[in-house]
Amino acid sequence: MDFAVLVDCNSFYASCERVFNPSLNNKPVAVLSNNDGCVIACTKEAKKIGIKMGTPFFKCKKLMEENNGKFFSSNYTLYGDLSNRVMDVLVSYPAEHEIYSIDEAFLLFNNETIKSIFAIGRDIRYSVKRLTGVPVSVGIASTKTLAKIANHIAKKSKNGVYVFCSQKQVNKVMKITPVSEVWGIGRQYSKKLQKNNIYTAEDLCKMPDTWIRKLMTNRGLQTVWELRGYPCVPTTSDRVEKKGINTSRSFSHLVTDKHELYEALAYYTTLNAEKLRKQNSCTQMVCVYLSTNHFRDGPQYRAAHTISLPTATAETPLLIRAAYEAMDKIFKSGYSYKKTGCLFLGLIPEISNSNNLFFKTYYKSAEQNMMKVMDKVNEKYGRDTLRYASTGIKRSWTMNRKLLSPAYTTSWKHIKNVEFSEK
Question: 0.70 cut: is pTM over it?
Answer without folding.
Answer: yes
